[in-house]
Amino acid sequence: MSATLFTGIGELATCEPTLGDESALGLLHDAAFIAEDGRIAWVGRASDAPAADERVEFGGRAVVPGFVDSHTHMVFAGERSAEFEARMAGEPYTGGGIMTTVAATRAASEGELRANAGRLLAEMHRSGTTTVEIKSGYGLDVATERRILEVANELTSETTFLGAHVVPAEYADDREGYLTLVTGDMLTACTPFARWVDVFCETGAFDEAESIRVLAAGIAAGLLPRVHGNQLGHGPGVQLAVEFDAASVDHCTYLSEEDLDALAYSDTVATLLPAAEFSTRSFYADARALLDARITVALATDCNPGSAFVTSMPLVIALAVREYHMTPAEALVAATRGGAAALRRTDIGRIAPGCSADFVVLDAPSHVHLAYRPGAPVVAQAWRAGTALIAPGHEEE
Ligand SMILES: [Zn+2]
Asked: What percent of the chain has pLDDT over 70?
């Protein structure tokens, strides 16, 4: 058992309001912390630090918790730059391009899927993500959904079965047949590799009654619910998520007063995905309405090849500050502690005693630089469970 002192931290944003200045960020200056066996053992002022076996010095830089990217679809094959180009030239986003990725993903070997996802995960580590959630949903047949989740399960414990992403073309005239498959054989094949069940509850995907069947079947199989809702228009997704006590309802671009009320009296987190709104040039969610109603907000990338081919949580933070009018502090909390809440986790998303020693060292004096310097490589180092994922020079370990 060895303890490491991380010190020389000019600004430490713990995201734990009982620490430091007792703001939501729990800010400390001239700070230090100790990690022991991968967990945070002590946090405080550098001058008060107890003795440790090893010492790592950060030269006055800012340190924040590792980012928790609680919504991605990063196991897939192919790419859709032509669709993006057409959309930027004025074609609307309908979600129909998902089938392009389904065809490429079905044709890919497990090795190709693993290599593609590994490259994206390396990008995420370089931009400070230390926990990632990964959904299936580009297979839409039993073998491919299972293959996606097997690969995802090698990369994270936060895996989500999203067989109910869209109805595939071969079932266009037999929705009932596809729902039977998703709630039956496909669910059975995927459950060993998944923690969560998700459904795309949206016009053009699955309606309310169908979504209820998908979530209920997943829960009966031992999975925990989460929902894609209210992305392309008003709909039942938020209410459904709250009724099922889902950990999170994701997108929330179109919310009614009733949706805000339902969320405010629930434990369901509203996960916002500004990179999807950016990359589809759509209307941005009303984050201020959620925050003013004291609803827990998470920020995530939605990393996928169609609507948001984005791996960078710092970009998501910058978009949230610019487009959602979140403060840099609110955006950082949503990208760390908020993402942890969206995964019902209390051991990540904060730099506090007992938490996993997951943190990011910024090449900057303050967390504000995450939003203030969009596009710059502000993330210098990322550590998970007290071990460096990327070290200075941005090299993978
Ligand atoms: Zn999604």
From this structure: 97
Report CA(308)–ligand 1 centroid distance (Å).
9
Q: Which of 269, 290, 273 is nearest to 232 (CA)?
A: 273
Q: What are the extents of the domains in the chain?
A: 3-65+351-396, 67-342
Q: How far is the CA of 98 from the centre of ligand 1 (A)?
A: 11
* Dist CA 242 CA 93 (whole Å): 27
d(CA 162, CA 117): 17
Q: Which run of H or of E encompasses 260?
A: helix 257-264
3-65+351-396: CATH topology is: Urease, subunit C; domain 1 (2.30.40)
**Per-residue pLDDT at 392:** 55
pLDDT recorded at residue 253 = 93
pLDDT at 18 over 50: yes
pTM over the 0.90 mark? yes
**Rounded to the nearest whole angstrom, what is the distance from the C-alpha of residue 166 to the centroid of ligand 1?**
12
Instruction: Say if domain 67-342 classifies as CATH 1.10.275.10.
Output: no
In one-letter notation, the amino acid at residue 319 is: L
